[in-house]
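Quick start: what a row looks like.
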Amino acid sequence: MKKNDKVLCFGEILWDNLPSGARPGGAPMNVALHLTRFGINATVTSSIGNDKKGADLITFLETSGLRTDLIQHHESLPTSEVLVHLDEHNSATYEICEPVAWDEISLNQELFEEVLASKAIVFGSLASRNATTRNTLMKLLENDILKIMDVNLRPPFDTEEIVKTLLKKSDIVKLNDDELITITDWYNLSGTLEERMKSLYILLNLKTLIMTMGKDGASVLHENELYHHKGFKVATVDTVGAGDAFLAGFLAALFDKKIVPQALKEACAIGAYVTSQAGATPMYTRDVIQNTTFL
């Protein structure tokens, strides 16, 4: 992907309140940050409150090399915070407060012009829980760009009707194995994970379907060919943001015209690295990932 080929990441930006402390997060921001580290011209659009936590997020974005001009400032709603719980395996579950600033991302001229100038848009299902942000996203998806859905089902904000609407508009879908089962059950599709992948891929007429399976690696269905990588074994610090890093790594490799097995391998490597570090956006360089013993 050329440097001027923009990727717009749309949705939530927030603070993940982990047992070890608060860290910047939100899937769209995480994906944009990781894409930028891989040389992709990525931008995040979201909304923060007029509060210190919002100002601190802006500072984080600036120091991370991301643009902040598409981050809206809400007059009355607060900057989002999420309470992260880690189980005995350091796998994360989330308590997500509402309403927050990213529930009301509005469609302004700057955002509309940005999507027109972009080659791809990355979005999830969580930010569409509120009608204002959902309507903005639907307008952006009317454009002829590559539409990449990072599913991220977060109960109770996982309404079947909304998720199905977003899936139907997508070209590339990334989900985990639990989400695959939930979604294929909605469509009355059954069978093994591989059979469910193939059925969903055909039903939604996708270009690419990606399924992550935690420590068991990941599978990709692309142009009717199924690929699998067993993943890399690491000591898990927490799983926060690992899927976002995986998606960014896969997209960066795909945009770089690498073959799918190599893209999948690199995605598993960056996902594993983030799992071995604290928080969703640990510091690293592309060389660190590519020169690691993972690859």
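That is the whole record. Residues 49 and 79 are 4 Å apart (CA to CA). The longest helix spans residues 260-275.
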